[in-house]
Amino acid sequence: MIAAREEPSSLRAGVFWSMLSFVGTKALTFVATLILARLLAPNEFGILAAVLAFITLLEVISDLGMKATVIYQSEEGVTSRVQTAFTLNLIFTGLLTILAVALAPLIAEFFEAESETILFRVAALDLLLRGLGNIHDALLLRDMEFRRRLIPQLTSNLVRGIATIALAVAGLGASALVIGFIIGSAVWTLTLWIVKPFRPTLRIERSSVKGVATYGGWASALAILAAITQRVDLAVIGSALGSRALGLYTIAQRLPELIVGNVTWNLSVVAFPALAERRDRADGSLTDTTLNLIRYSALFGMTIGAALAVLATPLVVVLFSEKWTEAGAIMTPLAIMYGLVCIVFPLGDTFKALGRQPTMVVVNALALPVSIGAMVLAAPAGVIAVVWARVAVTVAQGVVWIVLISRELDLRLRRVVAMLRPATAGATGIVLAGGAVRLALPDASIGPLLLGALAATLGGALFLRLFARREYAEVRDIARDRVFAKLRRRSEPSEPEASGPDPAIKAPEGP
Predict the structure, then answer these.
(1) Three-state secondary structure of 263-289
(2) Which of 122, 138, 219, 257 has the greatest CB tally within 10 Å of its CB?
(3) pLDDT tens across 10-46, in order?
(4) What does the DSSP assignment read for 81-141?
(5) What does the alpha-carbon distance between residue 345 and residue 324 come to, in Å, rounded to a whole number?
(6) What are the φ and ψ backbone dihedral angles of 507, each rounded to 5 degrees?
(7) For the segment 158-211, what is each residue's pLDDT rounded down to a tens digit?
(8) Are 146 and 22 spatial neighbours (Cβ–Cβ below 8 Å)?
(9) CA–CA separation, 349 and 353 (whole Å)
(10) For the chain, which residues make up each domain, given as ranges?
């Protein structure tokens, strides 16, 4: 078994390379999206969103929890369990690929894209390609080799972006997006086999099957529930409102998901082990850490979400062009929703650290049909109404999580709510200042966008200074010590700077 906990320097390096990988891959994806938004129509983006929703769900199922099992076992080298996990995963992904190809016409009909059935069939190949690389990726994660893991992630995204843009320029439309996606997955797997030279023997050891399948089964159940929750909005919008509405929704979701959702999720890799370690201390530090996580996660999510909501339309027009103007009104409630999710994001890892996964499953399982029902009822009023329905469900679910964590940690509810005061102050200042500029300069061009962003920043800082002085001082010190100090050092001769950020706990995986 490898060591249960890494040294602090290794954790710092892990966070650094994980964040570098995230920033690199998302930056490449976002640049490709900006270019494609000018080449393709909204309905073509809608078809891609439908295909990706289909494949994402199948990918979660196809993993069969084998990836999580390899990481969880924490064994050294390539053991019989690793070989068994690879073989089981490959068999299952092969069968699921065949099933996905057979079901493609029904899925295309569900999304009202019958003429694009071939794209759903081609996209099914992604399952087999990723099945060939899942265990190699798991070995990199298990061994904390984040630096090496960066290579296949960046390479596949770069090739995927170049291939997709080239095919789109050639006039392939939605086909360019799907084919480019498949090419990227093939490159990801090929690069993983080079970076992590694990050679499978395709054998199954009977003594390993039970343990591997049991843990993998529970991991799959939780992952499937999460995947459905995250993608059910695409299914409702695509089936009820068509590919054009789905395309607008996809573009509107890009920035909130990239800046708020993905950043928060990516930083969560350090939260669970830290919370588990504090639980073992039994000195109350778990409670203090959870409260701080709520405070800072909410401060990040609510302020950034408020800024994106206020500046949604000019952001969409400047970044994606005027033909996507309608996506601005959709982005506003989406940004609010992503900001609100950050309030309860830290609670998921706290519940896991306490061994309360069944509670998470029950709450999410109950929330899922409520969310679907709310969106279906709102669909006749349009895509904007669907998003506001999601916001309402998010608020209700957040209240439930806050009440549950208060009881679990034996906290007064008002103490948890008090953690939201800094975020509320900053978001209010952003909305008032940025909103005033938007009302005075309603034109969706780069000038009003920059002025609005400046006003929102100053407004948020002012309200933090007035109503949350501690957080204001911390943000000011971070900007002064981490940003401006680095700029000064770059302009002057200095000693080489140590790599890697501090292992600060940010936002863990949400419930």
Answers:
(1) HHHHHHHHHHHHHHHHHHHCCCHHHHH
(2) 138
(3) 444 544 555 555 666 566 666 766 676 676 667 666 7
(4) HHHHHHHHHHHHHHHHHHHHHHHHHHHHHHTT-GGGHHHHHHHTHHHHHHHTTHHHHHHHH
(5) 30
(6) -120, 120
(7) 888 888 888 878 877 667 778 888 898 899 999 999 998 888 887 777 666 666
(8) no
(9) 6
(10) 1-204
